[in-house]
Write a structure and sequence with these properties.
Strands 1, 22, 23, 24, 25 and 26 form a six-stranded antiparallel β-sheet that branches. Strands 2, 17, 18, 19, 20 and 21 form a six-stranded antiparallel β-sheet that branches. The chain has no helices and 37 strands. It is mainly beta and 388 residues long. Strand 22 and strand 23 form a beta hairpin. It has one domain: YVTN repeat-like/Quinoprotein amine dehydrogenase (Methylamine Dehydrogenase, Chain H).
């Protein structure tokens, strides 16, 4: 197994094309409504025909979760990723088996969801979504192909594919599992797994904020440790964090890259990859940018680290890894989300529930919230988001 320990500059793959998406994780935004008494947690539930999305109210003082009336809501088949439009009260769910995206309007007072329209057809395998900070464009990738889809988003929530899309990420063939836009909105990155059982790749693009179109960053893509799967930016946008399977034997790894804001190129932090546990299923950075959490499905734990704001180096939090807290014998965590106040972290579990933890703001230690885990109401929750 390859371990990357030296400081490496990674220029990202340039394609031949000029370009005229519990599961994926997203950077934590600052809290603009922390005075509210409740917020919401949503999960995409992969099992069932149709599959569903669950909605739960999160008490901002205690972290306790309560099902929203009417939840769960029907989606397509194989719901494995979801995201909220950062501007409008719309929730989108990617359905891998039916190959489409379900759209809902969200009641900001109750958290209840109402379908906006029929699902938008994409392709089988859709498993990650990103939306720019202005809510104008959606980017979607598939675990079944090298395609990257770009949609414009109407104020109604309707999705329209841009002409010339989908575009091919790599002609060598990759299966994508994460799509990320840096907080500045200038760059987009896709984490993908190739034919090798031990290596993944990152592909990078500059992004036109007006048209939504992408241009591949110059250079080439170097492999990254492990079969890359889930990624996230820290709140400052200085670091991209990417998990990979089977980096240290069966144990996973977490690679940290610093972002050059002027070029979009990534530099692997000294000490990367950092060891987590088996089968990492996501990554979340708390709102302060101080702590990083990785849920590990196979051994039902959460790895916790402090993040050095200068170097990107990770230091294990005392007591890590923490039990993820699901019920039953099949209870591994499948996704993770942090709240926007830096107080709580939530993981969705294979046991059809959500574990809630308070975050110690000084140490990063996780402590289960009273009553946790809370029933999800769906079947196989595979991705989770927190909505302020």
């Amino acid at each position: 197994m390859r371990n990357i320990r030296s400081l490496v500059v990674i220029p990202l793959l340039a394609t031949a094309s000029l370009i005229t998406a519990c599961g994926g994780s997203h950077p934590v935004q600052s809290c603009t409504s922390c005075g509210n008494s409740k917020h919401f947690v949503y999960t995409a539930n992969a099992a069932g025909n149709p599959s569903t999305v669950s909605a739960l109210t999160s008490d901002s003082s205690t972290g306790v979760l309560t099902p929203v009336s009417g939840s769960p809501y029907n989606t397509g088949m194989g719901s494995r990723a979801l995201i909220k439009d950062p501007v409008r009260a719309h929730i989108y769910v990617a359905n891998t088996q039916s190959g489409d995206i379900s759209a809902f309007s969200m009641d900001a007072a109750t958290g209840a969801l109402t379908p906006l329209s029929s699902p938008t057809t994409v392709e089988a395998g859709v498993d990650a979504i990103a939306i720019d900070s202005l809510g104008q464009f959606m980017y979607v990738v598939s675990g079944n192909s090298s395609n990257l889809w770009i949609f414009s988003i109407a104020s109604s929530g309707a999705l329209t594919p841009l002409s010339g899309t989908p575009i091919v990420i790599s002609t060598s063939g990759v299966a994508s599992s994460s799509v990320l836009i840096d907080p500045s909105g200038k760059y987009l990155y896709v984490a993908a797994s190739g034919s090798s059982s031990v290596l993944g790749s990152i592909f990078g693009f500059s992004r036109d904020s007006t048209t939504g179109r992408l241009v591949a960053l110059p250079g080439f893509s170097l492999p990254v440790a492990g079969q890359s799967n889930h990624g996230a930016f820290d709140p400052s946008g200085k670091f991209l964090l990417l998990t990979g399977n089977n980096v240290f034997g069966t144990a996973g790894g977490l690679s940290v890259f610093s972002l050059d804001a002027s070029t979009g190129l990534l530099t692997l932090a000294t000490g990367s990859p950092f060891q987590v546990r088996d089968d990492p299923a996501g990554v979340a950075v708390d709102a302060s940018g101080k702590f990083v959490y990785v849920p590990n499905t196979a051994d039902a734990t959460i790895s916790a680290f402090t993040l050095d704001p200068s170097t990107g180096a990770l230091t294990t939090v005392s007591g890590s890894p923490f039990p993820s807290g699901g019920n039953g014998t099949i209870n591994g965590p499948l996704g993770i989300a942090a709240d926007t106040a830096g107080k709580f972290a939530y993981v969705c579990n294979a046991s059809n529930d959500v574990s809630a933890f308070s975050i110690n703001g000084a140490t990063g230690v996780l402590t289960p919230v009273g009553g946790s885990p809370f029933p999800d109401g769906g079947n196989a929750p595979s991705a989770i988001i927190f909505v302020p």
